[in-house]
Every structure is written in structure tokens, then in C-alpha cells.
Amino acid sequence: MIFRVPVDNQHFKDTIENGKPVSEVAGFLSGEEKARVQRISRDGVVKYWGSIPGEGNKRNFEKLTEGDELLCYRSGKYIALAKVAFKTTNRDLAKYSWGETEVGSTWELVYFFSEVRLIEVDSEIINKEFDYSDGPVQGFSALSDDKFNEFVKKHLSVENLLRSLGYEQKIQEKISEEISKLQIKSPYEAQFYLVDLGNQLEFDTYVPPNDAGREVFGKKLLELTTIQKEDLSQYVAPAIFDPLSNIDVIWFKEHYRPQFFYEVVHSSGMTEAFARLKTVADYYETAKTRIIGEEENKSDFEKSRRLHFPDSPRISYKFYKDLINLHSETLHFKKVTDNFLQ
């Protein structure tokens, strides 16, 4: 079978990209599992992932068998292809590896990999071969039997498809740097830059459902974010769920704790933006709150700040031009880094 799963930034890096030392996870495993992990480890490191035990995830977990291929999806791209070695239900290992959500769930449906290959391929390229329309991967899912059989008849495996396309560890550049030279002409373009910048900086990113379907520079915002609203209920306490889920852009890190809240004020809405930020800021005291817009809106910001955040350094106003410049510099740095490391 072929499976797909959306992944975040930090946890993906921890247990798939880098992996964990066998000695670190062995204490959570049975005797037989320890022996299997030893056999599949490379240089004493083992790689694995997990899913929260919802009804759909349990159903797909039951189908998972040794040798199955699993594609990891993030922000409009497949970023890894893994081969399944074995699976186990292990709440303690999951909690140790990835923590737990604010409602007490953890990713206890654990699957270990015998091979992991890092890639960066537009999801559209592979989805077309699956006979899927392009779009974000929603949860841990398996190809239907019909689609799997047709794909295997044509390509044998995902690994074989990638080889035929020449994606041997190939890094595709993201959206052209020319985009970074444009002016921001709508709040949705500002959201695009904030989401893409957050992804580049290895945060997990979110926009509310009302904005997620907006298309900017040929991409829907939903395709770029790593967290959807339906995921938030697993990560966020019910008391704060509604106001938080309507913030324009959120950057998450470290067990899905919000690190930055962004409200975009394009031509109006300064008071409403402050009201939303005030609610979440009181709950997440270590998170930083930001309003972003044109330079001419700075005076309106100062008036509202004195009312809602008097003498607080936790909120500040950022200009569109500075967002564009930082986005451009970050893309340039990534390009230079990738070229040097290849």
C-alpha cells in the first residue's frame, strides 16, 4: 500500500530527518521491538512517526504493513519517502518523542521505517500520478485499492516514479525570488508572505478557514500551511479555541505552542485586530503579538495600543516592506545554503 501523512517542522526533524538513537527509545520498547529496531537502525539511529488514534487513523494504521511506502507532506510538497518496517501502539514513546496536545492526546500509533529518503517535490506532480486533484494532505491516509493498483501497474512504486523523474535528493527552488520584489496589494498577499516566511524559518503555520481557500501567486494558502483548523482542537484548549482560530496567521513551535500571532490590517480593522490579539495574548503570555500593514497605519496602531496594550512590549507594528525584505533575504540565504551543502 501507499500512505500519505502531513508533517510539521520540528517533530519531522526530530524523528524522521535526524532520527533518535536506539539507546534513547529502547526503554519504551518490548524485547522483540528492541531487536527489530536494532536491525533497521543506521549508525545506531532509528526513524519513526506516529498518528493520533482517531477513527480514520486507526483504520489506516490497521492496513499498514512491512514494506509499505509512506509520503510525508508539508506546505504543498512531499518532503520525504519512507519505507515501513513495523508498527506498534506506544503511548509512552509517543509522549516522550512528541509530547501531547493540550487535551491530552498523543501520537501513539507509531510506525518505524527501514528507509527514509528526503526529497522536495511539488505535491501536484505525484498527486497527478495518483489520479488525485492537487491539494493538502488531510491526515494519515491510504490510497484506495483501485488507485493503488493503477499506480503500481504504471510505476511499480513511488520510489521508481521519483527515480524516473530524476528526483534523486533533488531540491526544487521555492517560488521565484521575483515574487519578493512585488508590493503587497491585499491582506491575503501579506498572509502568503507570513506563512511562507514561517515555513522557511521552520515554524508550523496556520491561517483561518475563511482565508485558507484564497489563491495568491498561484497557490492556495491552505496548500502552504502546516496546521489546519481541524488539527487545532487537538492542540489548543477549548477555552481559547474560537478566538485563536480566527487570528490571521499563527506561527507554532515546540509541541504546537503558539510563538507569534499576526494580524494583518490592510486598510481598516485595527480595533478588531487588537481585540483578537488581546484575547490570545492574555492566555499565551510568552507568545509575541504583531500587527502588520502599511506605514501610514502606524498612527492608528499607536492609538489602539495605548488602549489595549498600555506599556506592553509584547505587541509591535511591522511594515509590509520589511516583511517583503525579510522574506527575500530568507529565500536567498536558503538558496545559498542549499548550493553550498549539495
Would you write up a description of this structure?
This protein is α+β, with helices and mostly antiparallel strands. The protein has two domains: 2-165, ph1033 like fold (Roll); 177-327, no CATH class. It is built from 16 helices and 14 strands. A hairpin with a 2-residue loop joins β9 (215-216) and β10. It is globular, with a radius of gyration of 21 Å.
Note the main attributes of this structure.
342 residues, 2 domains, five-stranded mixed sheet, globular, ph1033 like fold, 16 helices, 14 strands, seven-stranded mixed sheet, alpha+beta, 43% helix
Share of residues in helices: 40-55%
Q: What's the arrangement of strands in the largest beta sheet?
A: 2-3-6-5-4-1-7
Q: How big a fraction of the residues is strand?
A: 15-25%
Q: What's the N-to-C terminus distance?
A: 32 Å
The CATH class of the largest domain is identified as Alpha Beta
CATH third-tier fold name of the largest domain: ph1033 like fold
* CATH A-level architecture of the largest domain: Roll
- Low-confidence regions: 168-181
Brief rundown of the structure:
With 342 residues, this protein is of the alpha+beta class. The chain has helices at residues 10-17, 22-25, 31-40, 55-63, 91-98, 123-129, 145-155, 158-165, 187-200, 209-212, 221-224, 229-235, 238-244, 270-283, 298-308, 320-341, and strands at 2-6, 20-21, 45-51, 69-74, 77-89, 109-122, 141-142, 204-206, 215-216, 219-220, 249-253, 257-265, 288-293, 315-319.
